[in-house]
Each structure stands twice: as C-alpha cells, then as structure tokens.
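Data availability (excerpt). The following record was deposited with the supplementary files.
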Amino acid sequence: MKILRHPLFMRPTPESELEQAIDRELRALPERSAPATLMPRVLEAIARREALPWWRKAYTAWPWPARMMFVLGSGSLAAFLLYFAWGLGSGLSLGALSAEAQEMAAQADLAGGVLGALGGAVMTMARAATGNSSLLWGGAAVLGACYLTTFALGTACYRLVAQRA
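Predicted structure:
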C-alpha cells in the first residue's frame, strides 16, 4: 500500500533536487574524445568557406559598397512594385503609370547629372587644394566664418524673441 503525503509535508522544490541529481550523474560520466579526423575536416571546411567569392558568402561578409548597392537596388525594386500596385489598385491604366514612371526617371536622371557635376567640381577643388595649402586654409576660414555667422544670427534672434516674451 502506497502512503500518500499531505501537500503541506511535500518537498518545496522537487525540480531543483531533480536538476541537481541529473547534474551529478552527468558530471560523473567520462569525457568523450573527439575523433582524430575531426580537426582536419573542420579546418578544411573553414578553408573552403574562406575561398568562396564574396557574393557566395553571407551578406555581412560582403564589401560595404556591394551591400549599399544591394540595399539601394532592392529598395528601388520594392518602391517600383508598390508604386505600380498602388496605381493599378487606384484604377489607373498601365500606360498612365508607365508615363509617370518615365517622367520620374527623367527627373532622377537630371538630379543624378547635377549631383555628378557637383561631385566633379568638389573633386577638382580638392585636387587643387592639395597642391595649394593657402586655398585649403582659405576654404576652412570661409566655412568657419559661415558657421560663426549662423551661430551669431541664431543667438541674436533668440535674444530678440526672449526680450519680447
């Protein structure tokens, strides 16, 4: 006959006792040694992964320009698909949507041309500044004067507003 214990006399944490017993038994087991062929196989697998070209590796191992191009391209594709899905859902025809898309592409091409020209001008100025240090210091002085002027005007405007309040 099995003796039943009253709940008041039961052990408070049987889970922790079970955990300790399992831990004791597992620690008593002998250490298992790895097969002799394991280390060369692991090193060979690591060497194979290192030899892969960057586009076959994980995204985080890609060079940052490739990652930025991927993000830009996939974002553009997602925006393009959302634009067409939204337009078709609104009842516009495919011809009207493609005409709008061509107009936006022309504006983006114009903006790219302007940014390319500005970038070229900045690069030309940077090349000229590396040979002439007075030009570099003059540009730094102009930028510093612009910053201080902006700071001074902001302070003056704040004081004017604070006096009126």
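Summary of structural features: The chain has five helices and no strands.
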